[in-house]
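Aim 2 progress update. The chain analyzed this quarter is reproduced below.
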Amino acid sequence: MTDTHDPASPGDGPRYGRFLRRVQAAFIDAIVIMVAMFGAVFIAVTLNSDHLARTLGFSIAIGWLLYEPLLVALAGSTVGHYLCNLRVVDNRTGGNLNFFKAVVRTVLKAVLGWLSFVTMAATRRHQAIHDLATTSTVQIRNLAHARPHHYRAEQTDLAGVPSRGRRLAVTGLYLIAVTAVFLLASPAFESMGLLSAACFNDPDRCTRREDTVFALYSLCWIAAVALCIALGWRGRLIGARASRPASPQQA
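Predicted structure tokens:
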């Protein structure tokens, strides 16, 4: 019998926003905040009022701090989320996050930066660290308006993997090893003339070229960390590999 079930149908559960879709939303939010800031500066300069400039500056600062928490708590999405067809959902209630959770989520995302997103490749619901900490997910708001490359379904291919504790322990060892390799390899950049001793001792003394090299090196480390986390969670690292199901001939 032919299976006519559509795996992407809304009845199969929520769809979770992919990393690039969430990055697009973040860029839109950044643009919204910058436009508001430039608009306030333009008004203050045009009217030439110090009092108005201080008032607008204070208002923009408060608005910048509360922009995401308030919108996520009240509407389930920022402007960027809404334009990218995304919404932040509380996994426990299925509704919007409360204001406290929205604040915690925003603070964690600001502190960790892009590093917070490395867990998206390793979690069943494609959650970043700030999502995991607040038991939230970023879901497609309206599946009818989404394209397949905008979302992913919940991962169900983790059968046969070792226990969570074992995977975490093995992944942690790999992360320590990867970090140690990168730290031990860093002096080689000085010997190759890519980074100076002064730059190693004081990042403020790095040249623009050295800043670029250091940034690329840091991105490579972040990529290696993300890969270890993703492979470890899926049971693909030596020491915590998933058991393969027996073939029909072996069964």
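The first strand starts at residue 16 and ends at 17. The chain has two domains: 11-152, 164-233. These observations will guide the mutagenesis experiments scheduled for the next reporting period.
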